[in-house]
Amino acid sequence: MRPIAAGPPDTDTTTLLADAARRGARYLGGLATRPVPADPAAVRALAAFDETLNDDPRDAAEVLAELDQRVSPATTATAGPRFFGYVIGGTLPAALAANWLAGAWDQNASLESIAPGVARLEAVALAWLVDVLGLPVQAQGAFVTGATMANFTALAAARHAVLARVGWDVANDGLSGAPPVTVIVGEEAHPTLLKSLALLGFGRRRVLRVPVDGQGRMRAEALPRLTGPTILCLQAGNINTGAFDPFAAICPVARAAGAWVHVDGAFGLWAQASPRLAPLCAGIEGADSWATDAHKWLNVPYDSGLAFVREPGALPAAMAITAEYLPSPGVKRSPSDFTPELSRRARGVEVWAVLRSLGRSGLAGLFERNCRQARRFADGLAAAGFEILNDVVLNQVLVSFGEPAVTQRVIAAVQDDGTCWCGGTVWQGRTAMRISVCSWATTDEDVERSLAAILAVAGRAR
Ligand SMILES: *Cc1c(COP(=O)(O)O)cnc(C)c1O
Fold first, then answer.
1. Beta bridge partners of 290
2. Using CA atoms, how far apart are residues 71 and 90, in angstroms rounded to an integer?
């Protein structure tokens, strides 16, 4: 007999999971042919979710069916092949499958003793990443939720290190009364980098901003003289242009002056995984820390970011729970000594699965293909007489269709058309449409179809 104070009614777990897989596969199978934006009627119908919580349990199979019926059509097809907004990326099948299996495992990745399998996978994935991304072999890494937290995590290590060098223990004594730290960013730093700095107590307004060139690259000659505790933040992959700061010109000089150099490489750091694209990052290995996203260009599910720090022990110095932490080579890696979180899901499982399934050539192929596709967009639009505002060095394209109002009309019409999805921006005073190509699912045919749709819409808006 079942107890009276029952939890949810019994559902056969195998049937339920098979149903979830079937529904997920059907959803993904429909992405190539449905309009990219969410179905407006389905979005309006979301209002029906605003109801009071039921008193009695519901069957899990019913709950799943309700999710699928009501939410699936209210999603934007960001997992599909023709979403080019922001810098989003899809999810590789290997990553999604690994994510589902890891969900079943439900491991707490903070402790190697109770989660040995995922702890080992994450350690291996980090070592592979250090290799693939061309970072110093001794660099240590951490799995976090995204580039915002990756920047935060690496910059916390930076804060600790630069203050420790002048005899201040920020972990124990805090920032009040600490020697001042000079923080320098480029004029085109991503807004979330400034947020991370603000969370660390540096203050958005106190940050020094170095002028940039027409592509958004920091101008090396405009760098102020560096003295005292200093953190310098560079960027690999500007969110609008895809441009890279001149690492080779800046890193050696800054480090020689005692500054900590951090690189926000949310998507641009992946260029390192391709021999063809890696020259864009020349000198990047000379920095002290790096942040990147896996949920953007590596095409794993949300949320997944990565922080790397050159100096062994510098991450744990800022992140370990016990202040007594002393890095010693023989000690087993304790995952939570590297992350802001204690308990967390094992994000490294999906990252491992992608690296394993693509291999070096598959990784390079993914990034190179998307860059070639971005180039094709730019060439097609330029050939039709529209102005490309950036040097298309990576996977980002900025196009103007004329007057700001015209460009805005085209962006709205492209989104309304639904063949593909592109957003807008203002780049150094000029209104532009952004095309960001970062999905494994985007085929050359998707690019041609999207280009044709954009040109048709733009022709009408002119
Ligand atoms: C996307 C992005 C971020 C923020 O990343 P999240 O994963 O959304 O936290 C930071 N910097 C750059 C350059 C980005 O493109």
1. 263, 308
2. 18
Q: What is the pLDDT of residue 321?
A: 84
Q: Is the pLDDT of residue 327 over 50?
A: no
Q: What is the pLDDT of residues 386-419, one digit of tens each?
A: 999 999 999 999 999 999 999 999 999 999 999 9
3-state secondary structure of 306: strand
CA distance 264 to 233: 7
Q: What are phi and psi of 195, to 5 degrees?
A: -65, -45
State the closest ligand 1 atom to the C-alpha of 151, by its place in the atom list counted from 1: 10
Segment 356-385 shows an average pLDDT of 98
- Is the Cβ atom of 153 under 6 angstroms away from ligand 1? no
Cα 116 to ligand 1 centroid, rounded to whole Å: 30
> Computed over its alpha carbons, how large is the radius of gyration of the chain?
24
281 lines ligand 1 (CB under 6 A): no
CB of 264 closer than 6 angstroms to any ligand 1 atom: yes
Q: Report the alpha-carbon distance of residue 269 to residue 272 in Å, rounded.
A: 6
Using a 6 Å cutoff on CB, does residue 218 contact ligand 1?
Answer: no
**How high is the mean pLDDT of the chain?**
95
